[in-house]
Amino acid sequence: MSAGVVEPSCADAVRAVMANPDWLDLRDLRIVVLGAGAEMGPLPSVLRWGGDVVAVDLPRPEIWRRLLHTTRRSGGRLHLPVPAGTDPDDGALAARAGADLLHHLAQVADWLLGVEGRLVLGNYVYADGATNVRVATAVDALTLRLQDRRDDVALAFLATPTDVFAVPGDAVRHAERGYAARGVVRRSLRVASGGRLLHRNYPPGVDPGVNDSLVPQQGPNYALAKRLQRWRATVARDVGATVSFTVAPPTRTRSVLRNRALAAAYAGAHRFGIEVFDAATSNTLMAALLVHDLRTGGPALPHPWQDEAYAAAHGGLWRVPYAPRSALGLAVLLGLGGARA
Questions:
Q1: Residue 325 class from Cβ within 10 Å (0-12 exposed, 13-18 middle, 19+ buried)?
Q2: Cα(172)–Cα(150) distance, rounded to whole angstroms?
Q3: Residues with Cβ < 8 Å from 147, sequence gap 6 or more?
Q4: Under DSSP, is residue 305 helix (H, G, I), strand (E, B) or coil?
Q5: pTM across the whole model
Q6: ω before 21 within 30° of 0 (cis)?
Q7: N or C: which end of the chain has fewer CB within 10 A?
Q8: Cα 135–215–315 angle (5° rounding)?
Q9: CA–CA separation, 305 vs 144, rounded Å?
Q10: Other CB atoms closer than 10 Å to residue 224's CB: what's the count?
């Protein structure tokens, strides 16, 4: 926490979960994991803690073989969409399981409406390009359908740290201290780059600050899909629904590492005080924060930006001295060797 990798409220939330291990007994909930095969999703942790996971993902046998293998090693239960009469053998289940939200949205909605127990609808879907926006829109339509027909639906989202957020004044002051401490190196690099590198993260003294960590390489479709989730979280919270919305840390997922520039930037990010997490660490941390939000309901905060900033695990992007994009090129250059390795 002192390094600025997570917000103090994130550390407080994790400590609360550690102090209340009974919270991890999730048998009173049905955790719906949309995008069940996602590396950042809570499925492995919820199953390990003995909970019930209702899994939705594409009809791809390799996904379901992996999920079934995870389930067999856990104390939890996995509910998966399969045609009636499917043989309960793992091979048959993997071959026939799955539902495409773009083409089977009504069927998925009807299935989830029939699930008994308090429902937690977790959005962990991802697709490449414009399909990402289409899938995000499908999930939003599913959310509205379930909220309209059930009064027990909680929502869960993982926000990307590579977005634009209002951040607390404490994060601004942390960044300012780092900026002042690196004066000689910063001035040298700025002069050498004609002023293009290492801009300060925030204007002095602002509260809240605005952190702009958008990464152009991720594209507008990704940004819009994640923004749709933020809008839905804000609207749902405003009408009294339980919402877990947590900024997740930069993470070495397969989808990120497929992009050579992003892989190199992640490899060099530590030179600027940004910590990139392994997927197993991220999904366990995010699952613990989900449990905290479901058990406590989260704090009552006066503004939506404060809800978004609460318990954020941004990996340092909010508290580093430099505006992230002004250091991105250097991080890529420094990380090229590590990314190739």
A1: middle
A2: 41
A3: 153, 236, 241
A4: helix
A5: 0.92
A6: no
A7: C
A8: 95
A9: 23
A10: 14
Looking only at the bridges linking them, the beta strands covering 52-56 and 153-159 are unpaired
Residue 227 in tokens: 């923004």
**CA distance from start to end of the chain:** 29
Residue 197 CA to residue 300 CA, distance in Å, equals 39
3-state SS record for 81-127: CCCCCCCCCHHHHHHHCCCCCCCCHHHHHHHHHCCCCEEEEEECCCC
Compute φ and ψ for 157, nearest 5 degrees.
-140, 150
| Residue-wise pLDDT tens digits, 21-57 | 999 999 999 999 999 999 999 999 999 999 999 999 9
Helix spans in 150-252 (H)? 169-181, 183-192, 219-238
pLDDT (tens digit per residue) in 206-218: 999 999 999 888 8
CA–CA distance, 36 with 124 (Å, rounded to integer): 7
Closest CA to 36 of 153, 141, 124: 124
What SS3 class is residue 244?
strand
